[in-house]
Write a structure and sequence with these properties.
With 340 residues, the protein is mainly beta. It contains 1 helix and 17 strands. Helices cover 4% and strands 54% of the residues. A 16-stranded antiparallel β-barrel has the order 1-2-3-4-5-6-7-8-9-11-12-13-14-15-16-17.
């Protein structure tokens, strides 16, 4: 894997050699969302009003040899949530785009793509363990938008140590320190539309996160890698879209398997108004074979007026956070978001 990384960086360096950059473009965009949330359950005893802000700085230029260079940094209300990326495109003999990035990952981008008018089934209530790969860690990402004219996209990413966060100062390692036991992380995803079947799209993704634990002073460390995989199918006909997806996470350190099954259906009432219904069944199977299943249901509505969107979602879950005692939560959220 380290040799592959060196080859990729050598190709990048060669394609950029002996060139200079022209004056580029710079843009600043952002969004603001305010919400009002009510419901029952242990997590609904705080202030019902909430707000989230996000700002994105984007810059781009073109080198003398035609290679495109783009930079983006996203800033959320919590500075710890900052993400950045540097993307190179139109590189000779490379094809696609090559990026140094922490803005998502191939697998996290497709963790739940079932149709929805506002929020995913588990966005408001409860919590699940689902595919996330190396999301949030600064690494090398390669994307080929259309593989041999098939309509499918190939997306892969590599990080030397997963869980170390965004990039830091030059000549410094990413993150304040390595995460004990964590090794490299690799992801790959293939997504796209099916030729000659209008409205049908498919996608699969896989991630492997290397981890080790100290078993004893004499035995030393043993590999307990984490494997993640997901697959989905979506079909749209007219104003109706339906989707089905399955995701699984095998955590070697705890010998625990998480499996999530998603179903979603949406209806585009008008150009501005849409509604959806989403369900999720999230199962956890522990070392002793005991299984706990969370069940989520959500109905949402979204109405857009130019740069402003008003959304409503009503969601509930049973056995939330994989509890056997039957902890139930329901929640209704009204959202007003504006993009600038």
């Amino acid at each position: 894997m380290k040799n592959i990384t060196k080859i990729g960086l050598s190709a990048l360096a060669g394609s950029l050699a002996m060139t200079s950059a022209n004056a580029g473009d710079l843009s600043l965009t952002g969004s603001m969302e305010v919400t009002y949330t009510v419901g029952s359950g242990y997590q609904n005893d705080g202030n019902q009003f909430g707000q989230e802000n996000e700002m994105t700085i984007a810059a781009s230029t073109e080198l003398d040899n035609g290679v495109g260079v783009a930079y983006k940094r996203s800033l959320t209300a919590a500075q710890a949530g900052s993400d950045s990326e540097l993307v190179f495109s139109n590189m000779p003999m490379v094809g696609g785009t090559l990026a140094m990035t922490s803005t998502g990952s191939p697998l996290s981008a497709i963790d739940d793509v079932t149709p929805t008018a506002f929020e995913e089934a588990n966005a408001q209530v409860g919590s699940i363990d689902d595919v996330n790969g190396v999301d949030g860690t600064f690494g090398l990402r390669y994307t080929l938008a259309d593989v041999a004219g098939s309509g499918f996209k190939f997306d892969a990413m590599y990080v030397p140590v997963h869980g170390t966060g965004d990039a830091t100062a030059d000549q410094g390692t990413s993150g304040t320190s390595g995460v004990e036991g964590n090794g490299d992380g690799v992801e790959v995803a293939v997504t796209g539309t099916v030729p000659m079947v209008e409205g049908l799209s498919l996608g699969v993704g896989y991630a492997k996160l290397e981890e080790e634990v100290q078993t004893s002073q004499t035995v030393g460390q043993s590999a307990v890698d984490q494997d993640e995989a997901t697959g989905y199918v979506k079909y749209a006909i007219g104003p109706v879209a339906v989707g089905y997806q399955v995701g699984a996470v095998s955590v070697g350190s705890s010998n625990t398997l998480y499996k999530n099954e998603y179903i979603g259906i949406s209806y585009q009432v008008t150009d501005d108004l849409s509604v959806s219904y989403n369900t999720l069944e999230a199962a956890r199977t522990a070392t002793d074979g005991l299984q706990t299943v969370q069940e989520f249901d959500s109905i949402s509505l979204g109405y857009s007026m130019g740069g402003m969107t008003i959304s409503i979602a009503d969601a509930d879950c049973s056995k939330c956070s994989y509890t056997h005692g039957g902890r139930n939560i329901d929640e209704t959220t009204i959202s007003l978001s504006v993009a600038f």
